């Protein structure tokens, strides 16, 4: 099992200068201030190469505004939409099972003031839906692309972690 013991923050404007072969995981923080949709789209081919080589890309899709038209691997689509509740549908996935949080599971039902700001659809057949909102929209999913993995999170993890909303456990 690979543990991530260090990380490096890269400004979206400097992404082209990075050797992605140095990384096993890339987390794209796509919220209001971190990255625009045009910046994300300019990285698309490099991200696909990284995935085809076996890397993992986590898309943090927690926009409040300026959604734009982001191109996601495998033709997945994204829609702006806020809800306050989510329900775990894959209880065994490491993100929710406690495997990544020293045995502390995420609650089966999550609640928050705008738990998510978006949802994803048009997922590939191999997608594993992990969490849905109360309307059945996918707000956390994982799928393979090439030799790699894509994780799409529409959740506002950073907000819940920062404010410890409802004693939130951060996965």
Molecular structure report:
The protein has helices at residues 37-42, 44-52, 94-97, 157-163; strands spanning 25-29, 56-60, 77-88, 109-121, 128-133, 138-145, 148-153. The protein has 171 residues and is an alpha/beta fold. It has a seven-stranded mixed beta sheet with strand order 1-2-7-6-5-3-4, covered by helices on one side. The protein is globular, with a radius of gyration of 15 Å. The mean pLDDT is 84.
Radius of gyration: 15 Å
Strand content: 25-35%
Q: Ranges with pLDDT <50 over ≥5 residues?
A: none
Mean pLDDT score: 84
State the end-to-end distance. Answer: 16 Å
Give, in spatial order, the strands making up the sheet with the most strands.
1-2-7-6-5-3-4
Continuous helix count: 4
Structural class: alpha/beta
Spell out the blueprint of helices and strands.
Elements: E1 25-29, H1 37-42, H2 44-52, E2 56-60, E3 77-88, H3 94-97, E4 109-121, E5 128-133, E6 138-145, E7 148-153, H4 157-163
Parallel strand pairs: 1-2, 2-7
Antiparallel strand pairs: 3-4, 3-5, 5-6, 6-7
Descriptive terms for the model:
single chain, 171 residues, alpha/beta, seven-stranded mixed sheet, 4 helices
């Amino acid at each position: 099992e690979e543990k991530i013991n260090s990380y490096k923050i890269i400004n979206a404007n400097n992404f082209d200068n990075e050797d992605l072969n140095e990384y096993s995981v890339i987390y794209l923080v796509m919220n209001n201030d971190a990255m625009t949709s045009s910046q994300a789209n300019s990285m698309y081919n490099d991200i696909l190469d990284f995935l085809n080589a076996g890397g993992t890309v986590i898309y943090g899709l927690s926009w409040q505004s300026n959604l734009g038209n982001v191109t996601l691997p495998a033709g997945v689509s994204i829609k702006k939409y806020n809800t306050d509740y989510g329900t775990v549908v894959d209880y065994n996935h490491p993100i929710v099972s406690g495997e990544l949080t020293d045995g502390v599971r995420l609650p089966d039902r999550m609640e928050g003031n705008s738990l998510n700001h978006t949802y994803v659809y048009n997922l590939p057949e191999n997608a594993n839906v992990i969490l849905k909102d109360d309307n059945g929209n996918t707000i956390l999913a994982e799928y393979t692309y090439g030799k790699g993995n894509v994780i799409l999170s529409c959740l506002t993890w950073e907000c819940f972690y920062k404010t410890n909303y409802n004693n939130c456990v951060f996965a």
